[in-house]
From TrEMBL:
Highest taxon above the source species: Bacteria
Protein name: OsmC family protein
Pfam families, A to Z: OsmC
Species name: Actinokineospora spheciospongiae
Amino acid sequence: MAAVRVRRIGTHAFTASNERGGHVRLGRVGEPGAFTPVELLLAAAAGCVGITAEDLVVRRTTPDAVVDVVAEDVRPVGAHALDGVDIGLDLDLSGLDERARAQLVAVVRRAVEAVCTVTRTLKESTDVGLTIRG
C-alpha cells in the first residue's frame, strides 16, 4: 500500500514525501517553488497517462520518443471542486504511417482506460476517509 506523508515546513508551505525518498513542495496558489494540491492532482493524472503510454510508444517509435502530457483543471474561477480534468497527450508519431499511428493511438487509449489508476479513480470517483488524531 502506498503512503505519502505531508508535513508543514512554514507558513502555507508543506513537503510531501514517500518511502523511497521522493519529496515535493506544496503550498497555496502563489507560493514560490511549490505545487498546489490541485496541481499535484493534475500532475498525478498526467503522469499516470505518460507512464502508461511510454512503453507502448517507445516500442513502436524510438527510445527517445516524445511523450508530453498536459492536464488542466475544469472549473469556474474560485470554485472549490473540479468539474473535470482535461488531459492532452502529445506524441511524435511522424515516423509511423497513418495505419500504424491509428493503431498506436487506439492501443494507448485502451491501456490508459484499463490500467491508469489515477484517471480511472477520477472518472469513477472514490470515497475519501478522514481520521483526525489529536
